[in-house]
Amino acid sequence: MSLISYLTTIRFDFGALAGLKDDLRELGIKAPLIVADAGIARVGLVDRLKELLPGGQNVPVFTDTPPNPTEAAVLAALELYRSNGCDGLIAIGGGSPIDLAKGVALLSSHEGPLEQYAAILGGIPKINSAVAPLIAIPTTAGTGSEVGRAALITLKDGRKLGFISPHLIPKRAVCDPELTMGLPPMLTAATGMDAITHCIETFLSPRFNPPAEAIALDGLVRALNNIERAVAQGSDREARREMLMAALEGGLTFQKGLGAVHALSHPLGGLKQVSLHHGTLNAVLLPYVLEFNGSHSEAKYETIRQRLGLEVGASLADYVRGLNARLDMPSTLAEMGVPQDCFAAIAKSAVEDHSSATNPRPASEADYRTILEAAYEGASPRPNG
C-alpha cells in the first residue's frame, strides 16, 4: 500500500477502500453525506460503502447526479446535507458525483449564489478554507477529479463554468482499482482518453512547473501502455491499476492548467440539445488541437515522441487518431451528433473558458471555430502536428 502526500493524501491500491473509517476519523467527519449517481447505486457500490461506515444504512445518500453536474442538483444535495446535519461528504463515482460534491462542500460553508465563485467571474479568491471536508472515491480511470482543484458545474442559465481553488481539492482520495473492474469497454476507453488528454495538455501548458510535467509524462506513458489492454480485457488487474494511476497523475498536474481541448469540451458538455460525454469529446478534439498547437510546441512534441518511441517528426495527431480508431471511438463531432449551429456560441465560450489561457498557442474565437469545423468534418485545421 502506497501513502502519497502530494497536494492531498491518497490511498492507492487494491483494497484501499478498507481504510475509509480511518479517513473519516482523521478528518473528524461524523455525519457524512454520500454523493453518487443512479448507476453507482444500481451496481451496489453505495450499499457496499454504507457497510464500511459507522452509521450503516442510516447514512444519507444523494444519487440524482446528472451526467454533467448542474447547479440545481448541487442545491438539491445541499438541502439533503443540511437537513441531515452532515459535516462532510463522501463522493463515489466518476467526475460528475465528485464535482457535484465539491459544489456542496463549497456552498455548505459559503453564502450563495454559486455563480459568484466561478473562476472566470473572479471567484477564486472568494473560496476559503471553510469548505467542508470531502473524501473522493473514483470508480473510473479518467477525470482525476479526486485530486483536482476544480469542479465543472452547469448553471441554471446553461453556462458550464469552472470553480477552482486549492480548498476544493478533496482532503482524501481513495483510489481502489478494484472499483474500476466492472467499467464497460466504451467507458473505459472514453475515460482513459480523458486521462491521456489531461496528461498531454498539462505537459504542453506554458506554465513553469517541472515536477508536474514529469508526472504528466509518466501518466501519459502509463495510460498509452495500458488503455488498450484495459478496454479489451477489463479483468486485467495490472492494466486497471495502471490506468487508475495514470488518471490520478493527470489530476495531480492540473496545477499547470489545461488547454484548447478542454476550453472547447467544457461548453460543449453544457449543451442542452444533446448529451455529450466529456472523455469522448476530448478524444475527438485532441488530434485537431494537436495540429493547431504544433508550431508552438515543437520541443515538447519531440519529448513526447521520444517517450513513446515514435520517429522524429511523427504526427502526434495521427498517432491519437490511430489510437481512437483502435478503441472504436468516434472520429468527428458529427458522429457524436454535435449540431453545427452551436459553433459560434461554443467558440465564444471557449475563449472565455479558464483552460484557454494555458493553451500553448493563443486561440481566438475564429481559431476555435476553425478547430470545431475541422473536428466536425474530419479535416485538418493546421497540418502541423
Automatic annotation (TrEMBL):
Annotated GO MF terms:
alcohol dehydrogenase (NAD+) activity; metal ion binding
The answer to keyword S-adenosyl-L-methionine applying to this record is no
The family classification in the record reads: Belongs to the iron-containing alcohol dehydrogenase family.
Q: Alcohol dehydrogenase iron-type/glycerol dehydrogenase GldA domain spans which residues?
A: 8-177
Q: Which UniProt keywords apply?
A: NAD, Oxidoreductase
Reaction equations catalysed: a primary alcohol + NAD(+) = an aldehyde + NADH + H(+)
* TM annotation in the entry: none
Supply the source organism's classification: Bacteria, Pseudomonadati, Pseudomonadota, Alphaproteobacteria, Hyphomicrobiales
Q: Which residues form the Fe-containing alcohol dehydrogenase-like C-terminal domain?
A: 188-376
Task: Kindly name one Pfam family recorded for this protein.
Answer: ADH_Fe_C
The identity of this protein, by name, is Iron-containing alcohol dehydrogenase
Cofactor names from the entry are:
Fe cation
